[in-house]
């Protein structure tokens, strides 16, 4: 399983990833209850590898999320620092809409999700 910094930590289990994400990203909600299913592991063109899991999220309301912020010198070389949200929004959307919003390296996860949903008759 991929940890928050991309390190493999199989002993922690899938649930630890959700808890870590909540703590590190300040999402303000508990991760959905298990069981999680692994969709697969893919590499970005940069070489970074991602492992993606899926869980039944029907009870999950993206409106309940709160996002952390980061600070950045803005405008560049101005000496001023501004705060920006780590995430601008979370929302449910149809798979074709999601595919259009993801970068190339993330799209195989949607293909795997679509296949898993088809196999489950969803």
3D structure, described in words:
- The structure is a single chain.
- By secondary structure, the protein is of the alpha+beta class.
- It has helices at 13-25, 95-101, 107-120; strands at residues 37-43, 49-54, 69-73, 81-85.
- It has one domain.
- A two-stranded antiparallel sheet has the order 1-2. A two-stranded antiparallel ribbon has the order 3-4.
Layout: helices, strands, pairs:
Elements lengths: L12 H13 L11 E7 L5 E6 L14 E5 L7 E5 L9 H7 L5 H14 L2
Antiparallel strand pairs: 1-2, 3-4
| Class by SSE composition | alpha+beta
Series of secondary-structure elements, N-terminal to C-terminal = HEEEEHH
| Number of continuous helical runs | 3
Radius of gyration (Å): 16 Å
List unreliable stretches of 5+ residues.
1-8
The count of DSSP E runs of length 2 or more, i.e. the number of strands, is: 4
What's the N-to-C terminus distance?
A: 26 Å
The number of domains: 1
Helix content: 25-40%
Give the overall average pLDDT: 79
- SS strand fraction: 15-25%
How would you characterize the largest beta sheet? Answer: 2 strands, antiparallel
- The best one-word shape is extended
| Widest sheet: strand ordering | 1-2
